[in-house]
Amino acid sequence: MQANLAFQTLPTLNELTPEVLEQGRMGEQRRAALATARQLELPVWRRTDLKDFSIQNLRPVFGSVTVETTADAAAQGVYVADFQTAANEKADLLAQYLGTAVANDHNTFVAYNAALAQDGLVVYVPRNVELAEPIRVTYTLPAGGQAIFPRTLIVTEANSRVTVVEEFRSADLQSYGAVVPVAELFANDGSEIRFISLQTLGQNAYQLGAQRAIVGRDARVWWLAGAVGANVQHIDMEVALQGNGAGLEWYGFTFGTGSQQLLWAPTVKHIGLSTEGQIDFRSAVADTAYVVFDGMIDIEKGAQGTNSDLRDAALHLSDKARSDSIPGLEIDANEVKAGHGSTSGQIDEEQLFYLMARGLSREVATQMIVLGFFSAIVERIPLDDVQERVLEMIQAKM
Amino acid sequence: MANGNASNLEIRDLRVQIEGEEREILKGINLTVEAGKIHAIMGPNGSGKSTLAYTLAGHPRYEVLDGEVLFKGQNILELEADERARTGLFLAFQYPVSVPGVSVANFLRAAINAHRAEEGKDSRQTAIPVAEFRKRLTEQMKQLDMAPEFARRYLNEGFSGGEKKRLEVLQMAMLQPSVAILDETDSGLDVDALRIVGEGVNRVKEQNPTMGVLVITHYQRLLNYIKPDYVHALVNGRIVRSGGPELALELDEIGYKRLVEEVAANAG
Ligand SMILES: Nc1ncnc2c1ncn2[C@@H]1O[C@H](COP(=O)(O)OP(=O)(O)O)[C@@H](O)[C@H]1O
Ligand SMILES: [Mg+2]
User: How far is residue A162 CA from its own chain's centroid?
Assistant: First the structure.
């Protein structure tokens, strides 16, 4: 799949002149975004260490994306294209949605994405169309100090349904580089988006991005976020349950090894009446790795009938591994149900002994317990091949 | 099965304390569980029955101060818990542990394969074919009156007391050990479950007549199903009486309180 990629590399962000960016309407926006990116300071993140990172010295590269869609999608009138093609073909759609969920000036990385996104995915699902087969996207970060800026836009019209599976990987697992993804998901009334975003980058890559969904009346988002790769990850995520009766199921898994620092910051905003949100994120952490779950439930004024639940768990596989869980709960409505629970701990010695007492080596028993820990998430994945891929991702870390 | 190799389990002068505590729990146990025989250990709560069971199985919390346990030509106290299991020693836990996310079927298959890999060191055995595994599992579960869904459930997660004990016997039936230690496998069972469990143990024993069995129990009632050849009374970390099946009835009759008093009087 990666063999056909024809990469086109630009000068470093330091040297990049605005003229390199294309002409036309998008061109103006891109140049404005580049100016914004250059004005903004690096974000100050307490739990993400960027001291060895400089985005300015990286060279943006295009041509990292492969999109797999089906004949069915076309037959049913679903629009699927890489971002640059869509920018030419679907200017109105982009004008309506792009940058409305994640503002260009959200931070300098997002602004660079707005300036440089060519690789990416745009999906538009018309009313009442339910696409059975998932759309699959792979982004490959090439070797040697480069950066890619994937941009995802998914819009589902009333009562439609789509599944998108994306994966970020590295062509070379040792290479330094960055992936700066921005995703915007719009699930309009009564529709459903299932979004699966997996990250398996190399050990010297940075993954710094923002992903947001806006969910309409009686619409649903099912979201799985999985990360096992990268040196440093910081992903801001938000789901706004805007319409009455909007729903969210949100799962995440992380497996940190070596000296990885992997952070998720998911926020759920309950805005409409009777919205439901359920979050379950799980992390395993070994060696000297560090994982952070910075979760937030925000129940806005007037969001009566909200039902919200946030869970996170961390399993420590070494004494030097660390995890932080910072679940926040802000409630400005009175008729709500909201709960959160957070656990962290080592492998249970009694469980280990029980398995070993049946003849399993310490190693195999540990692996079983770790897989068992993640299974609450894995078994909810509605696609067999994604389930297998996720198991592979986890097993590869042990 | 290579596990089927007959072997006595010889416990010699075994003294044990719990890690981090000064108090000695087992104060010199001598007992040989003979291949093909059923030994029962009876004794009051807190006398050290589970400590003996855990120590034999290799639980890291139990610290051996002295003694040895010979099985198949080696002192198994020098082996890790998993190595002891693969040598053919099995412990049915008094309190089976729940392991979320690990299904009964997956676990059992992994355990069987671990045993086969051990044997395969000489004979090139490989993993059990899935069909063969399923067939054996289905048969054994049926005999223990377990519903097929059971195989997909997570180990002991949300199991009733009786279900847990059946799962222990199922594991024993699947693994076919050469010596089985049953730690209060009767506790918490109603009469029907007691019969199913008792018959289950007997079936495994019939299939593998050289298996030695050490039945640990508080009450005589399990011994109506699993007929012991020998009975031992454990009080305060010592075996104070040994005898034939009649000792179980006697202990039931006189009660542990009298026995404890007798022991105290003799010591004083
Ligand atoms: N994990 C433990 N921590 C501290 N004391 C223990 C522990 N397990 C057992 N003991 C003590 O060891 C003694 C023997 O316990 P045990 O072997 O469980 O007895 P039995 O199985 O005969 O009821 C008891 O006094 C008990 O309180
Ligand atoms: Mg006990």
Answer: 17
pLDDT of A105-123, one tens digit each? Answer: 999 999 999 999 999 999 9
Percent of chain B at pLDDT > 90 equals 80
Closest CA to A12 of A142, A146, A208, A112: A146
DSSP state of A272: S
The string of pLDDT tens digits covering residues A290-304 is: 999 999 999 999 999
Q: Considering just the CA atoms, what is the radius of gyration of chain A in Å?
A: 21
- pLDDT of the residue at A69: 93
Give per-residue pLDDT as tens, A252-268. 999 999 999 999 999 99
CB contact B153 to A (< 8 Å): no
Exposure b/e, B41-77, CB count within 10 A at least 16 = b: bbbbeebbbbbbbbbbbbbeebebeebbbbbbeeebb
The set of protein residues with a Cβ atom below 6 angstroms from ligand 1 is B 18, 21, 25, 43, 45-51
Structural domain tally of chain B? 1
Candidates A359, A372, A373; nearest CB to B82: A359
We report the CATH number of the domain holding residue B237 as 3.40.50.300
Q: Are B103 and B152 in contact (CB under 8 A)?
A: yes
* Centre of ligand 1 from the C-alpha of residue B43, in Å: 13
Structural element, H or E, at residue B30: strand B24-33
Paired residues of A341 in beta bridges: A311
Higher-scoring residue by pLDDT: B119, B46: B46
ipTM: 0.96
Instruction: With respect to residue B172, please indicate whether it lies within any of the assigned structural domains.
Output: no
Smallest Cβ–Cβ distance between A369 and the set B59, B86, B99 belongs to B99
* pLDDT at residue A3, as a whole number: 47
- Is B110 part of any domain? no
Residue of A nearest to B168 (CA): A358
Residue B126 lies inside a defined structural domain of this protein: no
pLDDT at B4 over 90: no
Task: Give the number of other Cβ atoms within 10 Å of residue B246's Cβ.
Answer: 9
Domain membership flag for residue B240: yes
